[in-house]
Amino acid sequence: MPERASRRRRHAAVAALAAFSITAGLALTGCSDGSEGPEERASDGPRRPSPAAAPLWDRTPASLAAVGDSITTGFDACSVLADCPEVSWATGTDSAVRSLAVRLLGASKAATHSWNHAVSGARIAQLPEQMALAAKVKPELVTVMIGANDACRDSARIMTPVADFRASFEASMRQLRATAPKAQVYVSSVPDLKRLWSTGRTNELGKQIWKLGICRSMLGDADNMGAAAVARRDTVRKRVIAYNQVLKDVCAKDARCRYDGGAVFDYRFTGKQLSQWDWFHPGRDGQARLAEIAYRNVTAVGPPT
């Protein structure tokens, strides 16, 4: 009997040692046998959610390149039929305008970290070339304002077709992304040319300048209110609206692109905000308003709606 009792004690000890070894192994490997109580489960603390992905839009870009047409070159803002880039809404240095570059970077840095590749008279077919130039300097932000010249033709019949406008803008974005894949793009809507006609036609000097050939599709026969002239202006306005839809749609496909939500198209320029020479292009005051709109949208927490 004593020997049998001794064997039983040895078997119990071996079983206990095995159980201890299994439990210790589970603890060391971080595994669980599913038997822990509420206090033990809570001891690890609440699970932290995975950090959200950083937003792609940087509201404080450190460099800027501008592409576009005569509005961005400051055409007719300082003297008749001439560019005036120092008052450009995007990259100008004029203290009265306080361009987007100055507002974002400060005056001294704007002089060395902003570039203007816009060309007066440019249509969207020329935009890929401008984008290629802008991409070379690897700017953190590229501003785009183009499309007015595609609607401003000698007649409404030869305005740039909407499909061609889309193809050129898509090609422009591809051109930029090939060299500067992380550059942000701020796209301005095309201004409401019919509203500019309506405001500018009150100035006799401006209408004389219009006769030199500025935007004939909209400004030709400025005082003609006949059915054909009214229909022509409406056709041009509808084309501008279609261009803006293209800008919005193409921009929406790029995670680092922000459209202005139609802010420039909706803006009601007053006479004092237009060029004192042609009463069509933005003057200094108008350029300052464009800079305000751009700065507000670039620095907004979310995109314009």
Describe the structure.
By secondary structure, the chain is an alpha/beta fold. Helix 6 runs parallel beside helix 8 and helix 8 runs parallel beside helix 12. It starts with a helix and ends in a 7-residue tail after the last helix.
Provide a brief overview of the structure.
The chain is an alpha/beta fold and 305 residues long. It is built from 14 helices and 5 strands. The longest helix is centred in the N-terminal third of the chain and has 28 residues, at 2-29.
Question: Main attributes?
Answer:
alpha/beta; globular; 5 strands; 14 helices; 305 residues
Quick one: how many beta strands? Answer: 5
The succession of helices and strands, N to C, reads HHEHHHEHEHHEHHHHEHH
Biggest sheet, open or closed, and with what strands and sense? 5 strands, parallel
From the alpha-carbon coordinates, what is the Rg to the nearest angstrom?
Answer: 32 Å
Strand order of the largest sheet: 2-1-3-4-5
Number of helices: 14
User: Based on CA inertia axes, which overall geometry fits?
Assistant: globular
Strand percentage: 5-15%
Overall structural class, as computed from helix and strand content, comes to: alpha/beta
- State mean pLDDT (0 to 100 scale): 87
Straight-line distance between termini: 92 Å
Low-confidence stretches: 1-52
The percent of residues in helical segments reads 40-55%
